[in-house]
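Lab notebook, bench 4. We co-purified these components, and the gel suggests they stay together. Before we commit to crystallization screens, I want a quick structural picture of the whole thing.
Request: model the full complex, all chains together.
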Amino acid sequence: MSISESNTNMNVIDRDGLDRLFEVLVSEGYLLIGPRVRDASVVYDEISSTRDMPVGLKDEQEPGRYRLHERGDGAVFGYVVGPHSWKRELFPPVQKLYQVQRNGGKPDMEAPAADVQKRALIGVRGCELAAMAIQDKVFVDGPFVDEQYKRRRENLFIVAVHCNEPAATCFCGSMGTGPAARSGFDLAMTEVIGGGIHEFIVETGTELGATMLDAVPHRESTEDDRVRRAMINETARQGMTRAMRTDDVHRLLTRNYESPRWEEVSERCLSCANCTMVCPTCFCSTVEDVTDLSGDHAERWRKWDSCFTSDFSYLVGGSVRPSISSQYRQWLTHKLATWQDQFGVIGCVGCGRCISWCPVGIDLTEEVAAIRESEHPAKRYV
Amino acid sequence: MQPKVKPKLAVWKFASCDGCQLSLLDCEDELLDVVGAVELAYFPEATKSVVDGPYDVSLVEGSITTPHDAERIHQIRRESKVLVTIGACATSGGIQALRNFANVESFTRIVYAAPQYIDTLKKSTPIGDHVRVDFELRGCPINQYQLLEVINAFLNGRKPNIPTYSVCVECKRRGLSCVMVSQGTPCLGPVTQAGCDALCPSYNRGCYACFGPKESANVPSLSQWWRSSLDVRREDLVRSLRTFNSGATDFERESIRHAN
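Here is the predicted assembly.
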């Protein structure tokens, strides 16, 4: 996806302007959630200014490996994506659904109050906006609306950032979600750095975004700015080394349920569930009921779960998917194929998290390619 | 609904350090509620008074290492309606199962001045090798909240929420970053059962597998990655697999494969 050609609503703020924007958002009641370094990686958590952010750092990623390095240029958004995704903010890993108190013969049920905190998400990438749009289909657009998700989603202010340098694990280009953010933001920035300049070219996506930007010192963009922005995006697009073919993937996977590749990958797969936990679109959860010792007070909690646990598919008599090969097959075919039947879109945005954060470096793009290749074994002998 | 007669709880000790049964006494905030809900019928660490069996719930700590204990566990099973094993010793043989990889007499000769008085078995084995076990609580030591959860579920007639998936699930829910991926630190979390809330990774350490192998643990794949991508030496890999749960089948098999 190339960057939007629209010249309208494009302004420029300087490096200090970014902190000024944060101050404006805080004064409007927003909690700033953005990137910060923890445990040798970039995670999303509360921030108060750019001082909290991974300034001057880049993330080197490959299957099963992630390392932070100094860039030497002071870039604020010089990293790509880490192990966190924004789903933590909208679909928390552990959430109380309701509680019940025995009150004589009648149980008193009480749901927690809706979370009305306004959140400003800082540095959201194109792939991540696409992931949010997919989770919206799951939690809001269907017949059963998740009110907690919906409320949190409505209270977001999104500051997107176009990626300047993809990681080696990124393949958003072939998934049509990046490296530039296309829609779904209030403001979107291109970080321009070099030749003594450090600025952000800011696109406005909403009225609210325009209002916030108005409170920050800025100048109108020039033709030079727009050319530079387009060049940065083109460099990012061409710098992407990984790809996944998707036009045939639904038919490919659904006619290969018995492929020997599932057994092969299961020899490497740990069924640890890391891929599903870091995936920005995976939405599966389990529900646990807890009681106090007397049984007078009970609570129902929702927790992130995964198709890689045997309890997840436990029915009367046992787990439907007890083997690692059946669990991996379920994950990949759902993500890339049957997700399309269910939600009308593919479930993968090409962020590459499942590749980097797989403890043994399993790469879904390689698995899909191998299954495609396995249909033409004769080629190997030509 | 509170039962009219309080269920009788017994706590039994076999070869072990006492740490797991002390976890019950560590439940300081909940302890009064527990003794209000159950009768501590046999728990020498807590009370001298002994109530005769049968017992509604027996918590069994420790592994079987002597001929005497191999008899005693059958007596306890006969007196217990529900038998729950607690901790790595009771569920996989514990640290003392390291004897399973060696000749136990070579140890007794070194440790004891008069080894002829020592009457011990060649192997340390889990309780489940000897009698039927109704529920297993993992850990070295067990997590006190998991113990409370099992007692709680028993009292309320519901399924205990004790997951058998990996430590990684707890790690990621907490928002921790993988120490293996981001720092190259060997971690057994992907093959280890959850229950500790990812305690060691939360302090930037790899998991030591206190809770033993998770469901369908792919230990060969993780071992391969440690050796090829993290440059872990063969003897260090074997040592990592032979700590608290060396007798657990998934770890035992893999450690033997690399030891020989």
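The radius of gyration of chain A is 22 Å. Worth comparing against the SEC data before the next meeting. Residues 18 and 50 of chain A are 8 Å apart (CA to CA).
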